């Protein structure tokens, strides 16, 4: 079955461009469009999309609040949210990730990246591009902990190896890349990632990366 996509952006021309790209793919189907967060909520309830391409800055209700309501405890449907950002303007992307977005993508990303990101998010994975993650967190480093704060108690529940895996997840590495870095199997990495998410009460790799930065475990700009 085709992946059902809802386009949410207050610029009609951008929605048209995204629709043309996505409808060229046999496994993707654009089921609707919305020009603001309130319309997005209505469309999600009515159309039950698999993935919502969500702009951040929109009238009436922004993408952060819409994401929070779409993915929150009272959510009505399976929709995952992929945030679209112009990057140099959107200081709320981290807030969108906290709110439940499964990843973010630059609006000027190549068409193949957009298509792949939708497929990744629809499959239940997080779209965590290393280059964008690093630039984003570096840009907003002043809004994150200094590293001098007390380490959260939940972090102490992780084993030494799980902490290593969390750091690599925060750098945006895939399971295969983490496996190569730690000289273990990809299956072992998946197990460690699962333990990290469960112990920390996190939904996915994106929330794990944000947690790693907010807890001071990883610092913006650090290797």
From TrEMBL:
PROSITE patterns: HTH_LUXR_1, HTH_LUXR_2, RESPONSE_REGULATORY. InterPro entries: CheY-like_superfamily, NreC/VraR/RcsB-like_REC, Sig_transdc_resp-reg_C-effctor, Sig_transdc_resp-reg_receiver, Tscrpt_reg_LuxR_C, WalR-like. GO terms for molecular function: DNA binding. It comes from the Bacteria. Keywords: DNA-binding, Phosphoprotein, Transcription, Transcription regulation. The keyword Transcription regulation applies. Signal peptide: none annotated. Residues 151-216 form the HTH luxR-type domain. Transmembrane segments: none annotated. Residues 4-122 form the Response regulatory domain. GO terms for biological process: phosphorelay signal transduction system; regulation of DNA-templated transcription. The modification 4-aspartylphosphate is found at residue 55. SUPFAM superfamilies: C-terminal effector domain of the bipartite response regulators, CheY-like. This is LuxR family transcriptional regulator. It comes from Streptomyces chattanoogensis.
């Amino acid at each position: 079955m085709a992946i059902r996509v809802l386009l949410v952006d207050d610029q009609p021309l951008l929605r048209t461009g995204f629709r043309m790209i996505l409808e060229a793919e046999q496994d993707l189907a654009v089921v609707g469009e919305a020009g603001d967060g309130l319309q997005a909520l209505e469309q999600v309830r009515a159309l039950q999309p698999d993935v919502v391409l969500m702009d951040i800055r929109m009238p009436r209700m922004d993408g952060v609040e819409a994401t929070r309501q779409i993915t929150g405890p009272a959510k009505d449907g399976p929709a995952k949210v992929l945030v679209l950002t112009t990057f140099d303007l959107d200081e709320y992307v981290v807030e969108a990730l906290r709110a439940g977005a499964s990843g973010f993508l630059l609006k000027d990303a190549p068409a193949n990246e957009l298509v792949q990101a939708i497929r990744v998010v629809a499959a239940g994975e997080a779209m965590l591009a290393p280059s964008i993650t690093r630039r984003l967190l570096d840009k907003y480093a002043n809004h994150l902990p200094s590293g001098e704060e007390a380490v959260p108690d939940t972090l102490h529940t992780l084993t030494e190896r799980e902490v290593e895996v969390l750091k690599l997840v925060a750098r945006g590495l895939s399971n295969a890349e983490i496996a190569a870095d730690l000289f273990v199997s990809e299956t072992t990495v998946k197990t460690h990632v699962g333990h990290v998410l469960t112990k920390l009460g996190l939904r996915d790799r994106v929330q794990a990366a944000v947690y790693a930065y907010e807890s001071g475990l990883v610092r913006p700009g650090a290797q």
